Amino acid sequence: MDKVSVSKGVFAHTGSYKIGRSKINQSLYDYFNEPWYIAYKEIWDSIQMKTESIRSNMIHQLISDLQSFVSSVKSNNIDIFDNEIPTAMLLTGINVPDHAKLFQKIVVQLRTLTMHVAILWSKDSNNIKNIVSDTVFQLINKKEEDDMEIKRTQCNMRALKLWYTTHCNPLDPIIIIISDFESFSPGVLHDFILILSSYSDKIKFILFFGIATTLHVVHRSLSYDATSKLKIKTQLFLFQVLHMQTQIKSLADILEGTIFSSDISFRLTGRAFQLLTDIFLFYDFSVDRFLQNYKLCMIQHFYGKNINSLCCRRKDIKSRLSSLTEEDIKDLKKLPSIVNYLQIQKESNKNEKELNDEKFKDLIGTLLMDFHKYITRFLTVLRCLHSLVSTLPKAQLGKQLREVYTKAVYSSNLTESQEYKECLQLLNFLSKEELLTKLESIEKILEDTKDPIMKKFQENLTTRIREIKDASLDIISDDTKEIVTANERLTRIQLKEKLLRMSQTHKRSPYKQAQIDIINYLDHEIFRVHLTNPSKVPTNEIFCYNDGNAVKQHIRGSVRGAIHMGLNDPQMYLQCDCCKLENEDAIPATLPDLSIIYKLHLESRKLINMYDWLQVMILSSARVYRLISHTFMVTHMAATSHSARPAHVYILRLTILIAILFRVDLVRVRGS
Q1: Which three-class secondary structure state does DSSP give residue 143?
Q2: pLDDT-wise least confident of 153-162, 202-211, 212-221, 627-636
Q3: Whole-angstrom Cα distance, residue 26 to residue 187?
Q4: b/e for 173-211, b at 16 or more Cβ within 10 A?
């Protein structure tokens, strides 16, 4: 024991860890193999793939136009431009936070024509020195290379000219993208354009201006001596055009391909969907943030709930059901929609015995398949309703499909709402041509359907469209029609009955009768049957998420409020029993030290001596450091000795000692 030294057990080792190059081995996460995570990952990956495909299609024409513009500049000799810089102005739209990703896609596509592309943002270009150095740094130091060719302090136009003449093909242009033109200082842009112009006889430049408002802002911001150096070609930015409707259209296209697609099993309904669309419309107009909020809703829906792994494609239902545990089966039986369904079945079949687990699984499998069929018909009929009412006066149910969807999943019964009834009344006033146009658009929606019920709907609709086309607009006269004469003596009741009978037997034109028949058919046999709120369908909890309040806390949470809640009631985030408070003012000894200090601060804010607090915390830190060193020493001694007590006993006792010391220091804090 006398020769034992702590230094024998303490030594330095370089190891293989590199700062900034650590890679997290994701296979270490336990939940990666959980059924709920597998289901979530599968659905989110499919949403991402569809979203990227839709976005690529939306900007395909723009990319093609920009590439042809760059190619035309590239094919011409530098002398033809006469010291003017070829410039394209892109109308990117207002209030759109998605520009960064969009311009990155443009850069990737333009690099196929020239590798010399630099993108500038106003936040990094507040003076002429910064804008020049940032441009030159991006052009000379390619991102794929590890070693920098030039330091940022050496980046100037002379260095760029030397590099261009030495390493670049004279036909290859240098593209500089001014992403947010309005946010740049006009003076900085003015000087930057003049500097580029002075080198344009040796270097072939192309400028792209990302403009949010109008093309006239260029002439308002820059003086004539700067604009005279630009050879402007206007490009209409097809993805985000000037007005906010384009961003709404972008969201509508993405919703159409993902959320309103029957290929995606997960559904956002009720208050949750309305909250996400409200944030999009009234706050940021960002499709990216909408998708991230949608992802958060998915995580909330799936996290820790293996029964939600049944939210999958039809072909995977059997395999997912077979992997459920007894605990998962119990959770399934507790779902409100399942409880209601079983209660109804029990009341209708009183002699039926209680289902065992195998029969219950078969029943759940049938209900899940039924939900898939229901949601496919629901979305198809919803599109038909939208096509029918979107262009009506005042657009009671909304002009966009997402508006009709919001009303259908948020209201208890869409077909009983006042807006729906007013839309049906307005349909009665349509002309023959307008009605036929709407019905033919519905027929087109039903063309690709494979569902037998929707096929029958299509056949009936085709027959009725033919009848309306052949129907005449002339009213057939009726010579036998009753009339009320002055000489006829009738009591008040007899007169009322006769007038009622006459009103019921008045003649309509064949078209008018066919119009009433088709509207009644759509109302009673299609819309009222298939537009049931998803929350009323069994197993909806597995596929649908509608908890808007839970999402709102994460999406629109106040930073100060969250910090206050975390310090005042840490159990809210830690989810541990030791931090549970009997009342809000209680300060139990098991709370984290920072929470105790914060709660004491709330008790007497003006009487706190912050200097003494900090001194106590510093002393506590030094004392803990000494105790930890002592702990390792005693542990090493216990491990190398022949003592009867195991090493963990010493560790436990010293840990208790540290805890006591911390508590003593906190008591001192309370006293101060």
Answers
A1: coil
A2: 627-636
A3: 49
A4: bbbbbbbbbbebbeebbbbbbebbbebbeebbbbbbbbb
Identity of residue 582? E
pLDDT of the residue at 622: 54
Q: Residues 78, 170: contact at Cβ < 8 Å?
A: yes
Question: Are the beta carbons of 488 and 495 closer than 8 angstroms?
Answer: no
- Where helices occur in 315-356 by DSSP H, the ranges are 317-322, 326-333, 336-348
Per-residue DSSP letters for 428-441? TT--HHHHHHHHHH
- CA atoms of 417 and 531, how far apart (whole Å): 12
Q: Would you say how long the chain is, in residues? A: 672
Cα 430 to Cα 299: distance, rounded to the nearest angstrom: 46
Q: Please, where are the H alpha helices in 111-201?
A: 128-140, 157-167, 186-198
Q: What are phi and psi of 205, to 5 degrees?
A: -100, 150
Q: Write the pLDDT tens digit of every residue in 615-646.
A: 665 555 555 555 455 444 544 444 444 444 44
Whether 110 and 175 have beta carbons less than 8 Å apart is answered as yes
Question: Cβ–Cβ contacts within 10 Å for residue 580, how many?
Answer: 15
Query: What are the Cα distances from residue 487, in Å, to 400, 483, 484, 490?
Result: 59, 11, 9, 9
- 39 CB-near residues (< 8 Å, 6+ apart): 302, 308, 309, 310, 311, 312, 320
Q: Which residue is listed with tokens 């369908």?
A: 537
User: By CB neighbour count within 10 A (0-12 exposed, 13-18 middle, 19+ buried), where does 35 fall?
Assistant: buried
Ramachandran assignment for 369, one of left (phi > 0), alpha (psi -120 to 50 degrees), beta (any other): alpha
Phi, psi angles (nearest 5°) of residue 321? -65, -40
In the predicted model, what is the mean pLDDT of residues 276-292?
86
Closest CA to 81 of 205, 245, 262: 205
> Residue 622: is it exposed, middle or buried by C-beta count within 10 angstroms (0-12/13-18/19+)?
exposed
Tell me what pLDDT residue 539 has.
93
> Could you tell me if 173 and 160 are in contact, meaning their C-beta atoms sit under 8 angstroms apart?
no
Please tell me what DSSP assigns to residue 526.
Answer: I
Say how many C-beta atoms besides its own lie within 10 A of residue 411's C-beta. Answer: 15
- CA distance to 47, 203, 403, 457, per residue, from 379 (Å): 17, 56, 13, 14
pTM here is: 0.72
Per-residue model confidence (pLDDT) at position 347: 82
3-state secondary structure of 490: coil
Residue 597 has pLDDT above 50, yes or no: yes
**Mean pLDDT of all residues in 351-363:** 80
Contact 419, 396 (CB under 8 A): yes
State the Cα–Cα distance between residues 311 and 448, nearest whole angstrom: 25
390 φ, ψ to 5°? -65, -30
> How many CB atoms are located within 10 Å of the residue 248 CB?
18
Give Cα 520 to chain centroid, integer Å. Answer: 38
Cα–Cα distances in angstroms (integers) from residue 211 to residues 58, 214, 325, 335, 458, in the given order: 19, 7, 57, 52, 47
Indicate if the alpha-carbon torsion angle 458, 459, 460, 464 is positive or negative.
positive
Cα(266)–Cα(543) distance, integer angstroms: 5
CA 594 to centroid of chain Cα atoms:
35
The crossing angle, in degrees rounded to 10, of helices 357-389 and 401-410 is: 130
Query: What are the strands, taking DSSP E only, across 437-562?
Result: 544-545
The three-class DSSP label of residue 410 is helix
Among 238-252, 464-478, 583-597, the minimum mean pLDDT is found in: 238-252
